[in-house]
Amino acid sequence: MKVSPDMKRVVAIVTEYRHDSHAEVIVGRLLGRLDFVPQIKVAALYLDQVPLNDMGKVEAEVCGVAIYSTIGEAISESNSVGGIDGILLIGEHGDYPWNEKRQKLYPRLRFFEETFQALDRLGLKVPIFNDKHLSFRMEEAEWIYQGLASRRLPFLGGSSIPHTPHVPEFSIEKLLEVREIFVISWLGIESYGYHGMEVLQSLAEQRRGGETGIKSVQALEGRSVWAAMDQGVVPEHLMLSALRTVRGELPGHPRDHVDVPVLFIIEYSDGLKGYVLQLQRFVREWAFAFRDAEGRVTSARCESGLDRPYKHFEKLTHCIEQMILSGSSPVPMERTFVTTGLINFGMEALHFGRKMMTPQLAVCYSPKEL
């Protein structure tokens, strides 16, 4: 791949770089892999872990990218030999411990701490991308959020899924008077549930007046999910409407095929209700349905790539490039903070078996994009 000397330069800080990791499908694209033509250049790489199936070292050598042993060195040394224009934090995948709440303890706080320290020492203000949520702990997430805001750093975070096309398409205006949103998600409760929360919030923030805050988060697991539907507490018709949009033929009703479903129930300050249902391997993609004030239901799926090269990461990578080149993020920083809170409080609600009140999520903001 030919690299223009005028390309803006970024430092990539990742937990691990292996086949099908988020590092590979994001940083790899910026190295010209997966049929991607990059507009920015990876100047340096930091690998927090190097597993036996690591491919980061070889890719870096082939592409002429320096690898550093610390985050501070990666930023400062890269800045001294050509300047840097952005930083990518990809704290996803790797051999890290779990806590009792079923959360994986990725070192995202440390990544931000060492990044902030290096930027402050050098007097730099450059855009930062963070893959997925800010931290598994709300106190850490609040510290990161305040650090980004106080430094006035352009920031893009969260999931790749909200950037995908909706099939079928619909007018954003249908969300202005939305009253209920039901999201279908799958696989890992925390890891993929976060994508579901991001889909939910990307829709919810489009209502008239924008986001006005979240009041509480509740979680149900197992048979209690279906019992809540049978009692009319949870809108089963929205779930079924969303499921009708997914690709492939489903074997029947999920209650007959999903051993341990998990349902997150989100109550917004203005009365909007949100639901994110984890259906293990019953589906392979995200879908949703919502009801407006007149009772009209709209449903669609998120057109993600089911297999390599995972085209939803192509759109996310373009968004990263857009921020680095323009200095402005296409997504509000507040969304990432809110969805971090949604998944963290959701996992706490699941662990403690009770509704969690969420005063920390009394956040108001307006959306930039759908």
Characterize the structure shown.
It is built from 10 helices and 14 strands. With 370 residues, the chain is an alpha/beta fold. It folds into 2 domains: 151 residues, NAD(P)-binding Rossmann-like Domain (Rossmann fold), CATH 3.40.50.720; 158 residues, Dihydrodipicolinate Reductase, domain 2. It has an 8-stranded mixed β-sheet. A 6-stranded parallel β-sheet has the order 3-2-1-4-5-6, sandwiched between helices. Helix 3 packs parallel to helix 4 and helix 5 runs antiparallel to helix 10. The chain is globular and about 65 Å long. The model has no long low-confidence stretch (mean pLDDT 97).
Domain count: the total is: 2
By secondary-structure content and strand pairing, the structural class works out as alpha/beta
Could you give the count of β-strands?
A: 14
The CATH class of the largest domain: Alpha Beta
Say what the CATH topology of the largest domain is: Dihydrodipicolinate Reductase, domain 2
**Portion in strands:** 15-25%
Tell me the CATH architecture of the largest domain: 2-Layer Sandwich
Shape: globular
End-to-end Cα distance, whole Å, is 33 Å
If strands are numbered along the chain, what order do they take across the biggest sheet? 7-13-12-8-11-10-9-14
| Radius of gyration (Å) | 20 Å
